[in-house]
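Archive entry: two folds, one per protein. Generate the first.
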Amino acid sequence: MKGDFFLTAKGPGKIFLDYGPVQMLISASSRGKPLAGRQLKAAAGCVKELLETLSACLPLAKQPPAAVSGKRRQFPEVLCRMAAAVNATGDTSLTSMAAVAGTFADCVADFLQELGADTVIVNNGGDIALRLPQQEFIRVGIAPFIGSAAINMTLTIAEQDGWRGIATSGLGGRSLTQGIATSVTVLAGSASLADACATLIANSTYHEDPSIIRRPAREVDPDTDIAELPVTVALKDPAPEVFRRALENGLASAQELYSRGLIGGSVLTAGPYCSCFPPELAARLDLHDSRKITRQTM
């Protein structure tokens, strides 16, 4: 893949990579000691290799995962991991690309662990891979809008939770969505699975209404992998009831994925409403504003 390759040090054990479609913040340490710059640069090189590998099989990555799943010896590992995550959701409308950002984060995190890191945080544009030692924890901010610098709640995640991946999808991000949620954050056992499930849940936050304008994805992005699917392009003053019903659909999707053991929980925001599943997740969220969050929409 061609393009400028930028690396910026962000402090001990931290580096920011900007290369093509990837904007990734990498943080890693071993027994409390930040990893050396050369090891972080090696991780950045891993990203470059992943992009070049995926670019060579991009047409296949834009197909449903069934074309790849279960054939690890035939295709690159990164593509197989993407396909496996999407295939696990059971949604036949998604392609392997629905898990690309999370899978890249996972691959880099695993690479750093192989170099000896025991604490790793890889933030790939909001899709995050976590690798924590026993008894360790971190605090993660959750924003009500995709790409927002402001957060309205935080969540403490401990190693024993088993949530090694966090991903957010919704209306307003770089990717297209079929729904109207401005933020759907998912916790899962891997970033690749969190990415795929966040895409699915965000897509499900839709309620038929004239105020929601949708177009075939190919009209928005000619290179999209979901060319014929309708995606949301604009909202024209939807009533609160539209957001409420859309969010109920998203909650139902989150509950189904949770019941199958695919996710550890999800936080959803659409219009004036904010909800989560499972119910007990609400008690773990520290709110930064007056908005309430419950399992049911308000």
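Generate the second and append.
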Amino acid sequence: MKILAALATAMVIGPVWAGSVWAQAYPNKAVRIIVPFSAGGSFDITSRILAQRMGPALGQNVLVENRPGAGGIVGTEYVSRLPADGYTLLAVGPSFIINPALRAKSPFDPAKDFKAVSQTIAMAMAIAVTSTMPVKSLQELIALARSRPGEIAYGTPGPGTIQHLLGEQFGLVTKAKFVHAPYQGGAPAAVATAGGHSPMLLGNVVLMSPFIKSGKLRLLAVTSPQRDDLVPGVPTMREAGYPALEATNWSGMVIASAVPADIVARLNAEIVRTLNLAEVRDLLKAQAIHATPSTPEEFATLLRTDAARYARIARVANVKVD
């Protein structure tokens, strides 16, 4: 009878014990960070800084893999089809929640297929013009655009990007008609505007920096809530009189929605710890990138609010990308 009782007890506690061992064993192989954009960009740089320092703490290699294409869709769809075992993180930016609002069919659902782990960084964006444009302020640009409707094009990193949607909102709020000029990335857009091929640019401040110093680009306003350290003399959108255009370009990490909460908590703790290291903050600041670690709940709130904001802009401006 004692043997039977012991077996019965083992059958009851066995699954619990096995689950505990599984949780304690994580991770028992390499963890991957999939960056759905090309190497060398802000998301890629941040992911590699994180991977290098998270690996030793996790006791496993953390590998970064670039899978660019279709504005982030290729890499995101790839991750959505992988097992939800907690070994694949996805680095995302605003296009993650913008793309589904612009396309008739999306191969993934950000809200159902993924859950937030942590925000990682934030970057200031700005409206700039080529140095030959006869405007010195945002108000002068708006006045010129109203006098020449449909003639002033604004360059962006591409269709469906946060810069594209902010450009559409800029036109709606100011009642000025601008034309979207998409490029294959933020750097080509900055080069084109600095070279006079596009009169106006909406992009990340860090990519504009060399052309600001050379005098080829003139910044009119930054979209961040505060002035940016890189260009402290440039007013914010709120200071320029357009608080509705306040926005931040951000990145963060998400994971498959079915991954257990204890694994999400472990990954979040390592991301937050790494981003709070003084050396990491200094490395990012040198790239004009601000470390913004968060709880999963805080990042989930940002994803929801920005998804609603940009879906509304896309609907009102009738923006579609197919």
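Annotation attached to the second fold: The CA atoms of residues 86 and 314 lie 33 Å apart. The radius of gyration is 23 Å.
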